[in-house]
């Protein structure tokens, strides 16, 4: 207690104050609190209240000095010394003390915990309201949500019923709160069990005295907190960021804010008290004004006033753009600060008005004046005035940049309705201040998230939003704040008229746009516009609309691109990201929000308002950029939001509101201006794709792609095209068409002459620009997105287009189909129909698995009838981001037609009938019936027929498409008689008489006057005499009749319209002095020539048909044979076919539409002329034509060759790279052994030579050595281990193979001699070295130089050359060593295989002698040859492959026994693994599955050579113990302190390998068989011993007696009964059977059959290993068999079974025995070792007997069906080291260990936990499931790769990183593939994308 008093004294308080209440402090706190509570409960409680005040004053102000110590500086030391009882000035004892007091006082003397519980009991809240921060996992259910922002915490979600709903799990970006129980935001059906009950009724009233103390204490406490905040704040210096200080203050405040947070969690009762405290204005006034003489409080108040200063919008502080630092601004801001100082405590600074509207007409100012006058609510301009604690708390929360704890506290209060309203109003009041703080913030991202975290809770509620809009001018404030925000980054627009432009646009390079700082404000705006009541207010308010259009115009024309003509740009700016994001978020999304409320007739007025102000803004914009009639060349901006607003509201008006289109369209002049910029964009797109903008860098392509990309297209390209369609339907068609060709710069190309000059386009771009222009026209005329399609038709068309390009997954379809982009509507146009449309147009292809291939996901592919009837190339072209997708769609279409037999050849894009046009847009079709277009079509047909250059099939296709469209949409039936040739209105009538396509098609054109270069072939001809009548009556003498007149005409029309509209003659068109008018002198002069044509469109079509078919007379009118065709034409809506079919279709339609056409077609066909050859093509022209053609052909040839090459390479890779499964073989193999071959021949894959391997130049196999613990994971139970998903389930590793072997070895080492132990077992169950090869060989010297070249190759490889890694030069399989091939045959020669008739005894003797002569080698080791060097180096590699702990088992480190053990264990590991790859048994037989790929033979040679360096002392050679009787047993056993391991305890398979590998190689088959026979006798004895232990006592006696009876029969040594009784009687001599008779297996009835089966099972593992070994050493196939007969088959294969015995009696395993020494002699000798051991260690005897091994195949853990089970358990599980929840939790799928990926807490010596675990659990191979991503990651040594996911959603797709959050289910096939790759060690070969992990995982 004294400490607190002392601290108070230090705080500069007069010490007199701290004396009187001393006794009180002496009493303990609880008593004081109880006393006060009693005092306050009396009716007259003034005295009590004063006493409490005094106490609080003292207790709480004990905190003050510390606060200053934090913020202040000089006093810190003093405070630290005296304050807080030596607590060092940190947030120490004083604060703790204060909090303790508060808790005591609140509880009024009782315990605080009990008090909390009591308050909770009165919680009436029916809302959940749980607040969470970023990264929390929450759920969203679209079926239950009313607002799209609805979210639920996991608990409420799982307790509600959402089966079959459209829900997903998501990771919160900005934080949020649970909406369960709030019926404003979600439907009640979705509430969880806790919040369904409206429980307010049955909750009792809160007793008055329970919360009485809280009402007194809390105001004081909160005020104290506010003072603390005031004091800690220092106005940041200009350049020093103050975050650190703020952070410090906040840290020291942690406990206080947490205390408040805990209060909010006590439930509704406490919340209402807090609300009362926070919103009570009287409290605030009293405490704020009661500062009196307290100096410290005064100081903090001053700080508060300074902080308040910049909070209004009116201050010019950051508005000084470009040249605005004028005097006025400067002085006024000084004046204000002086003024603030003067007002002192009241702190209410009145905004000086003249300062706000200072008249400086700077750039941004022009709009400001207009703006501020429109804001009705002046308060937003002024400094903030605070009237309650809540307001000031929010103010400081903003000032401190939204600390998380404060945000959580403020949000926790929201379930209280009164608070919610008060808080929302306060938030709105501070909105401008929030924007200013956000702009200055350095951490704008974090801050944005926190702002949205709050605002989304407030504004998603429609009722609340409406109320605030009405009472606080929310809309005005938002729009004004947004406008102000953007004003700070405006620059002058350079569009059109760079010098005189008055337009300002946002600068996309500014941080504000680049970092999306505006996002929270825009997001709030979009959010409130989604409420109908609010949106209506907005749409009715003219002032607001004007302001908003002002705002939108800031984005009009931003990010202007200027085409680079000379140099490539030095720096590619990436500002376009910012520009597109800004237009989408700040302009388009609010627009979609508004549009969603303009759906019915009653809303017409709104549309009229928007359109009106939009047009005004556009007019202002045209004026500001000085726009007349021509866009500036080589400029394009993709951002025209005003155009798009206008277009979308027009579209809505016609589609939903039945408005008359003409009533909202402007005059012709405005329409002409409107179409210019969108048309410019379309032309620029074409230029960009024609590579005319390459010098601008890649970013310009990026813009072109973004513009059409699925998230942007319906806010960008769709409105643009729609606006152009509207303009086209209302403007003069000739004007429109000529504008198009002029914009696309191909006017000059449209000439009849074979040569022309294009003054503004290089010839290589002409073709693609012409294609672009025609494609644009086709899209313009065919697209019906806004012209009459229903939403469902649109959805279907979009879906078909996407599916035709490629098969798609469900999620990518959802992503690619443009949704109605108002994100708040949450619903794709008819999202219910999404699934139904999808099932109507597509089939689902379930995911398939090629083992080891790429794993596919579930895909949707178009149904056949979609290809047949709905494939629409126009839609595909409109929607493709990459040009290759169009080709892909056509290829798929072609493939379908071929497959279904509908069309064999190369089809053209099909022609599709369109949805009928909405009547308002009928004018659009006039484009098809205007002379200009007809002239263009005629010219192009003619040029194609005459083979002029630069025309492609694509052009023809588009031309025919346009003609067909024209025929489909011909106006009215034309009269059949010839039209009179009168009429003066003829501008180019020599071309066509009228404007109807049907009649113009048959019109013959005889001569045309063209303008050509003098060199052209046409000039040399004499013009025919009669040019006057039919020739071109040219009005100007200016050249090509067609086109220049078009341009001129267009000018004239424009002039007329403008003059008509404006009536002022001064609006003259400025003559353009561009190169278009005067051809530059360098080119040859143009002269006029007259061409003879004599064709009509019809005749050209017929000749084209001949040309396409390559035959003359190929067209024959079908109706001549069958008149029916004309009467009932069966013209399908949809037609397949190529150019000829198209021509036929067009001619038929033309004939149908007019009898004259029909007649003319027949005439032409009668006259049939051979196709006209180009008249006298000069040789020069021929050359250029040929050159062009040759180039084209060469290009095509090259493409073909490349394609063929690629496919060949692919097929080779498929055969060569068959890494996929370890089963298959390779063509290029080690030569199979033929009996005659004396030496194996190897091919070197590097130098290509073949020959034998020799001492000097050895050949080697390419191998991959890897440490493996797969064997160690075998378990001896068949039911699989499950991944634990609850706290109860655990995985214990002690039943694994590795654990069992480890225990056994250490037990042996306790009792027996070390060196002998190390030969009694095998190691390598964990960390064993597995060797595999791809089967390719190379010379070792070639390999060395190959490695050298890899080392010098700087390319990043996926492997590390330093570690000796490389890829096989032939098949690219991963490898890391070379295994030398031993000279001689790779399989022992046949002469060893002939059966000799030596007796068993002779062979045994020979084996013994061979082992004696250890040192002698055919290849003498003493002479160091290359071969022996290589063998040593590969041995080093093998050793270093695994970790030291897996090779060192001896008690004396580094003893040679260790190496010996390690080497034969490598052989064991490889044999055991091969056995596992075959499924654990050898029933399948055949050559080894890994047969040709096996390197075991070579491996044995290497091991044998090294094993023979270690001699086994002949005294200890196990061979002797097996084949000879010892003379004196006793003496030998006891003469050493540690005996050798008894033979019965030794592992027979290990003995086999030791015997084989220490024999001189090559080994004779007979010796091998001999060794096997001897070892089998030992094995059989071990089996009998193990069995005897398993029997019960009675059984043992019974067997013992039975055996003794049979002992004297013949063949007694081959009868198991006899042998069993022998073993039992021998072992009974020791203490073996005495120990624990409680064998639970004693219950089994051991029938003879059972025993036989047991013995066979016991021996099988040894037989399998031995058979494999024999197969590898001596060749020969393994026989296949049934499982029952595996034992007999293997036994006879190994030569254990004498062949005759199979005939007679039933087979017994004992018949395979062939005793080297009589069994009755040797068995007692073996048993004696055991019994004598049992004398000393009776309890271990049984344990050490070798048991039957029943290992199951290695398996990964079994995973649950549903991913959520794993996720919910693990994603919140804490790390065992630091007890925090890891950021990236992962779980090992081999053993179930929970690890932190990349977690620093678990790092040990720079290794992160996953890498460490992969070494401990898998010897370098780890398989981890990343919990938060659902993905599996593989660690292999120093590399890792992402494997993919084994969990797929209902549509067969992965959900990496759980982005979509849909429910995921296990995919068993994938998991099998993973397990298969793990067991077969093929991760390295199958997975391609490896990278180094630098131990950081």
Q: How would you portray this structure in words?
A:
- The protein is α+β, with helices and mostly antiparallel strands.
- Helix content is 49%, strand content 6%.
- It is built from 74 helices and 30 strands.
- It has a six-stranded antiparallel β-sheet with strand order 24-23-25-26-27-30.
- The N terminus is likely disordered.
What secondary-structure arrangement, pairings included, does this model have?
Blueprint: H1 2-10, H2 22-26, H3 29-41, H4 46-61, H5 64-71, H6 76-82, H7 93-107, H8 112-120, E1 131-132, E2 137-141, E3 152-153, H9 154-159, E4 167-171, E5 176-177, H10 193-196, H11 212-232, H12 243-264, H13 268-279, H14 281-289, H15 295-308, H16 327-343, H17 353-356, H18 365-374, H19 389-399, H20 404-412, H21 417-429, H22 431-440, H23 444-459, H24 462-472, H25 474-487, E6 490-492, E7 504-506, H26 511-514, H27 519-529, H28 532-540, H29 542-553, E8 561-562, H30 575-595, H31 604-624, E9 635-636, H32 641-656, H33 668-689, H34 698-708, H35 717-730, H36 733-743, H37 763-782, H38 791-805, H39 810-816, H40 831-841, E10 842-845, E11 859-862, H41 864-869, H42 873-879, H43 883-899, E12 911-912, H44 931-945, H45 953-968, H46 997-1000, E13 1005-1013, H47 1027-1030, H48 1043-1062, E14 1086-1095, H49 1097-1109, H50 1124-1127, E15 1134-1135, H51 1139-1153, H52 1155-1167, H53 1179-1216, E16 1242-1243, E17 1250-1251, E18 1259-1268, H54 1297-1311, H55 1314-1317, E19 1328-1339, H56 1340-1352, E20 1366-1367, E21 1374-1375, E22 1377-1380, H57 1400-1412, H58 1426-1441, ...
Helix pairs in contact: 3-4, 3-7, 4-11, 5-6, 5-11, 7-8, 7-11, 11-12, 11-13, 11-15, 11-19, 12-20, 22-23, 22-25, 23-27, 25-29, 27-30, 29-31, 30-32, 31-32, 32-35, 33-35, 33-37, 36-48, 37-45, 38-40, 38-42, 44-45, 44-49, 45-51, 49-51, 51-52, 57-64, 58-60, 59-60, 59-63, 59-67, 63-64, 64-66, 64-67, ...
């Amino acid at each position: 207690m004294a400490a607190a008093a002392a601290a108070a004294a230090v705080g500069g308080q007069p010490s007199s104050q701290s004396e009187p209440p001393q006794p009180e402090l002496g009493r303990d706190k609880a008593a004081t609190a109880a006393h006060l509570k009693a005092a306050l409960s009396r009716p007259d409680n003034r005295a009590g209240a004063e006493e409490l005040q005094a106490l609080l004053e003292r207790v709480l102000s004990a905190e003050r000095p510390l606060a200053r110590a934090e913020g202040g500086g000089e006093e810190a030391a003093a405070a630290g010394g005296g304050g807080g009882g030596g607590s060092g000035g940190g947030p120490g004892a004083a604060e703790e003390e204060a909090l303790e007091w508060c808790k005591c006082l609140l509880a009024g003397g009782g315990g605080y915990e009990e008090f909390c519980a009591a308050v909770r009991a009165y919680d009436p809240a029916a809302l959940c309201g749980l607040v969470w921060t970023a990264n929390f996992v929450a759920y969203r259910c679209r079926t239950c949500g009313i607002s799209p922002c609805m979210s639920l915490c996991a608990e409420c979600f799982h307790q509600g019923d959402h089966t079959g709903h459209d829900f997903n799990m998501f990771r919160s970006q900005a934080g949020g709160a649970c909406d369960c129980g709030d019926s404003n935001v979600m439907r009640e059906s979705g509430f969880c069990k806790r919040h369904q009950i409206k429980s307010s009724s049955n909750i009792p009233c809160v007793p008055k005295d329970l919360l009485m103390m809280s009402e007194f204490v809390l105001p004081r406490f909160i005020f104290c907190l506010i003072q603390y905040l005031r004091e800690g704040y220092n106005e940041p210096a200009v350049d020093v960021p103050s975050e650190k200080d703020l952070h410090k203050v906040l840290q020291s405040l942690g406990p206080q804010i947490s205390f408040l947070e805990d209060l909010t969690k006590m439930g509704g009762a406490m919340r209402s008290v807090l609300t009362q405290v926070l919103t009570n204005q009287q409290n605030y006034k009293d405490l704020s004004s009661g500062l009196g003489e307290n100096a410290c409080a005064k100081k903090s108040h001053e700080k508060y006033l300074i902080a308040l200063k910049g909070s209004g919008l009116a201050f010019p502080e950051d508005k000084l753009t470009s040249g605005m630092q004028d005097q006025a601004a400067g002085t006024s801001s000084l004046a204000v600060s002086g003024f603030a100082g003067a007002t002192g405590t009241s702190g209410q600074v009145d905004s000086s008005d003249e300062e706000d509207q200072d008249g400086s007409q700077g750039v941004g100012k022009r709009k400001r004046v207009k703006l501020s006058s429109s804001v009705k609510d002046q308060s937003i301009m002024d400094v903030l005035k605070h009237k309650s604690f809540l307001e000031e708390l929010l103010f400081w929360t903003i000032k401190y940049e939204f600390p998380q704890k404060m945000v959580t506290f403020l949000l926790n209060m929201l379930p209280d309705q009164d608070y919610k309203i008060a808080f929302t109003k306060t938030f709105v009041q501070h909105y401008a201040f929030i924007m200013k703080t956000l702009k200055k913030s350095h951490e704008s991202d974090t801050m944005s998230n926190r702002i949205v975290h709050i605002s989304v809770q407030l504004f998603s509620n429609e009722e609340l939003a409406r109320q605030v809009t009405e009472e606080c001018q929310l809309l005005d404030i938002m729009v004004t704040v947004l406008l102000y925000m953007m004003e700070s980054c405006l620059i002058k627009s350079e569009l059109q008229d760079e010098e005189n432009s008055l337009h300002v646009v946002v600068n996309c390079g500014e941080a504000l746009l680049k970092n999306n700082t505006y996002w929270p404000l825009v997001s709030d705006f979009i959010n409130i516009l989604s409420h109908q009541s609010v949106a209506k207010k907005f749409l009715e308010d003219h002032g607001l609309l004007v302001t908003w259009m002002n705002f939108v115009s800031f984005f009009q024309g931003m990010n202007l691109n200027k085409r680079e003509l000379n140099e490539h740009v030095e720096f590619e700016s990436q500002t376009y990201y910012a520009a597109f994001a800004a237009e989408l978020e700040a302009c388009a999304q609010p627009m979609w929000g508004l549009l969603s409320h303009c759906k019915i007739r009653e809303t017409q007025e709104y549309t009229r308002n928007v359109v009106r102000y939009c047009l005004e803004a556009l007019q202002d914009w045209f004026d500001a950029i000085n726009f007349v009639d021509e866009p500036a060349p080589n400029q394009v901006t993709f951002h025209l939001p005003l155009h798009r607003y206008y277009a979308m509201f027009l579209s809505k008006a016609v589609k939903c509101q039945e408005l008359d289109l003409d009533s909202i369209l402007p005059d012709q002049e405005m329409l002409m201006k409107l179409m210019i910029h969108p048309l410019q964009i379309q032309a620029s797109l074409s230029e960009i794709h024609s590579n005319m903008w390459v010098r601008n860098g890649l970013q310009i392509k990026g813009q072109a792609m973004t513009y059409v990309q699925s998230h942007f297209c319906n806010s960008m390209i769709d409105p643009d095209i729609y606006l152009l369609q509207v303009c086209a339907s209302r403007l003069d068609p000739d004007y429109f068409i000529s504008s198009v060709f002029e914009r696309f710069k191909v006017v000059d190309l449209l000439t009849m002459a074979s040569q022309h000059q294009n003054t503004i386009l290089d010839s290589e771009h002409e073709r693609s620009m012409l294609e672009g222009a025609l494609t644009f026209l086709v899209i313009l005329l065919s697209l019906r997105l806004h012209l009459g399609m229903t939403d469902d038709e649109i959805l279907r068309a979009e879906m078909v287009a996407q599916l035709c390009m490629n098969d798609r997954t469900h999620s990518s379809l959802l992503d690619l189909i443009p949704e109605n982009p108002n994100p708040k509507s949450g619903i794709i146009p008819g999202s219910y129909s999404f699934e139904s449309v999808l099932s109507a147009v597509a089939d689902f292809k379930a995911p398939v698995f090629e083992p080891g291939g790429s794993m596919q996901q579930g895909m949707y592919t178009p149904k056949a009838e979609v290809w047949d009837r709905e494939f629409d190339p126009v839609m595909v072209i409109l929607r493709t981001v990459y040009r290759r997708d169009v080709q892909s769609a056509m290829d798929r279409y072609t493939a379908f037609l071929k497959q279904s037999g509908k069309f064999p050849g190369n089809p053209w894009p099909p022609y599709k009938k369109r949805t009928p046009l909405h009547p308002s847009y009928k004018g659009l079709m006039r484009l098809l019936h205007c002379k200009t277009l007809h002239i263009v079509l005629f010219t192009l047909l003619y040029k194609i027929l005459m083979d002029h250059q630069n025309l492609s099939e694509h052009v023809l296709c588009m031309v025919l498409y346009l003609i067909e469209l024209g025929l489909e949409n011909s106006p009215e039936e034309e009269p059949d008689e010839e039209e009179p040739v009168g009429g003066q209105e003829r501008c180019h009538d020599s071309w066509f008489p009228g404007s109807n396509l049907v009649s113009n098609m048959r019109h013959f054109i005889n001569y045309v006057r063209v303008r050509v270069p003098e060199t052209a072939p046409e000039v040399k001809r004499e013009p025919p005499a009669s040019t006057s009548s039919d020739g071109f009556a040219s009005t100007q003498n200016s050249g090509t009749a067609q086109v220049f007149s078009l341009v001129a005409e267009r000018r004239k029309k424009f002039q007329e319209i403008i003059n008509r509209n404006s009536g002022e003659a001064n609006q003259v068109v400025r003559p353009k002095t561009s190169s278009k008018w005067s051809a530059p002198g360098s080119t040859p002069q143009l002269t006029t020539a007259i061409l003879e044509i004599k064709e009509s469109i019809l005749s050209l079509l017929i000749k084209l048909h001949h040309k396409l078919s390559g035959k003359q007379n190929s067209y024959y009118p079908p109706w001549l044979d069958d008149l029916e065709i004309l009467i009932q034409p069966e013209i399908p809506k949809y037609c397949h076919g190529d150019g000829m079919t198209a021509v036929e279709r067009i001619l038929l339609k033309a004939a149908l539409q007019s009898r004259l056409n029909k007649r003319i077609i027949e005439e032409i066909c009668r006259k049939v002329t051979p196709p006209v050859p180009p008249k006298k093509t000069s040789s020069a022209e021929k050359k250029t034509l040929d050159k062009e053609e040759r180039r084209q052909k060469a290009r095509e040839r090259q493409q073909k060759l490349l394609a063929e090459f690629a496919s060949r390479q692919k097929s080779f890779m498929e055969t060569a790279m068959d890494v996929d499964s370890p089963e298959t073989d390779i063509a290029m193999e080690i030569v199979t052994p033929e009996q005659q071959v004396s030496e194996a021949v190897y091919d070197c894959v590097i130098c290509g030579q073949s020959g034998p391997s020799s001492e000097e130049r050895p050949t080697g196999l390419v191998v991959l050595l890897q440490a493996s613990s797969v064997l160690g994971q075998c378990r001896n139970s068949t039911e699989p281990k499950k991944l634990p998903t609850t706290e109860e389930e655990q995985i214990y590793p002690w039943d694994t193979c590795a654990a069992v072997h480890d225990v056994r070895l250490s037990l042996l080492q306790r009792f027996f001699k070390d060196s002998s132990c190390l030969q009694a077992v095998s190691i390598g169950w964990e960390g064993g070295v597995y060797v595999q090869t791809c089967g390719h060989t190379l010379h070792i010297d070639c390999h060395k130089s190959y490695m050298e070249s890899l080392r010098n190759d700087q390319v990043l490889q996926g492997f590390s050359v330093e570690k000796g890694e490389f890829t096989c030069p032939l098949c690219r399989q991963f490898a890391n060593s070379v295994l030398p091939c031993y000279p001689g045959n790779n399989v022992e020669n046949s002469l060893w295989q002939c059966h000799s008739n030596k007796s068993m005894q002779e062979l045994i003797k020979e084996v013994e002698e061979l082992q004696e002569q250890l040192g002698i080698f055919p290849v003498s080791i003493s002479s160091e040859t290359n071969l022996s060097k290589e063998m040593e180096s590969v041995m080093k590699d093998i050793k270093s492959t695994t970790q030291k702990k897996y090779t060192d088992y001896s008690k004396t480190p580094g003893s040679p026994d260790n190496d010996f053990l390690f080497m034969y264990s490598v052989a064991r590991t490889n044999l055991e693994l091969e056995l596992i790859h075959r499924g654990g048994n050898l029933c399948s037989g055949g050559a080894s599955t890994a047969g040709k790929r096996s390197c075991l033979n070579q491996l044995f040679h290497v091991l044998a050579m090294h094993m023979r360096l270690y001699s086994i002392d002949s005294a200890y050679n196990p061979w002797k113990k097996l084949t000879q009787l010892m003379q004196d047993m006793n003496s030998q056993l006891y003469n050493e302190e540690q005996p050798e391991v008894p033979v019965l305890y030794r592992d027979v398979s290990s003995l086999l390998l030791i015997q084989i590998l220490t024999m001189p190689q090559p080994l004779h088959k007979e010796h091998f068989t001999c060794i096997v026979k001897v070892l089998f006798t030992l094995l059989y004895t071990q089996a009998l011993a193990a069995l005897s232990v398993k029997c019960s006592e009675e059984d043992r006696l019974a067997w013992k007696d039975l055996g003794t009876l049979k002992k004297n029969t013949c063949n007694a040594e081959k009868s198991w009964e006899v042998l069993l009784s022998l073993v039992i009687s021998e072992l009974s001599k020791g203490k073996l059977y005495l120990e624990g008779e409680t064998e639970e297996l004693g219950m089994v009835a051991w029938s003879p059959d059972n025993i036989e089966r047991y013995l066979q099972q016991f021996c099988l593992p040894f037989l399998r290993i031995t058979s494999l070994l024999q197969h590898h050493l001596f060749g020969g196939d393994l026989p296949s068999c049934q499982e029952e007969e595996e034992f007999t088959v293997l036994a006879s294969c190994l030569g254990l079974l004498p062949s005759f015995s199979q005939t007679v009696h039933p087979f017994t395993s004992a018949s395979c025995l062939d005793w080297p020494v009589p069994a009755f002699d040797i068995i007692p000798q073996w048993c004696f070792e055991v019994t004598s051991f049992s004398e000393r260690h009776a309890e271990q005897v049984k344990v050490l007997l070798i048991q039957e091994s029943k290992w199951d195949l290695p398996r990964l853990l079994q995973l649950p069906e549903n991913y959520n089970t794993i996720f919910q358990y693990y994603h919140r599980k804490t790390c065992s080291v630091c007890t925090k929840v890891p950021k990236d939790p992962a779980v090992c799928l081999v053993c179930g260990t929970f690890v932190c990926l990349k977690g620093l807490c678990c790092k040990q010596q720079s290794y992160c936990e996953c890498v460490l675990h992969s070494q401990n659990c898998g010897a370098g191979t780890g398989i981890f499931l990343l919990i938060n991503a659902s993905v599996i990651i593989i660690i292999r040594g120093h590399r890792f790769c992402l494997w993919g996911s084994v969990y797929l959603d209902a549509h067969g797709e992965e959900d990496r990183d759980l982005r979509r959050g849909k429910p995921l289910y296990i995919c068993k096939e994938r998991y099998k593939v993973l397990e298969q790759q793990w067991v077969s060690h093929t991760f390295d070969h199958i997975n391609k994308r490896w990278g180094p992990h630098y131990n950081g995982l």
